[in-house]
Task: structure prediction
Amino acid sequence: MGKIGHELVKPLMKDPVTSGCRSALFAATSEDIISESIRGQYIVPDRKVTEPSSRAQDEEMGERLWALQEELLKEKFGGKLPYEEDWILKTFQHRSTQ
Result:
């Protein structure tokens, strides 16, 4: 594409600094997240809150994705993954019973 192509396309692209991180900054810093009980929703730029798609809420698909990620990470790094260590498992089990 080269430098000329990049310059032609640049005006059509969003600048990640001015707009790309807006939703993350809003989620991390806005008191509205707590006061409006925003949980389990997507936040897009300019404070728009939307519900996740039905596929994103599919628990069975989420479990399959988690299993696939574990398999791929174990193949790449071998052995136990950090969160499989005993002290981590005990911590999360304790939190889930509260």
Q: What stands out?
A: The mean pLDDT is 78. The chain has six helices and two strands. The helical segments are 2-9, 16-20, 22-29, 32-35, 59-77, 86-96.
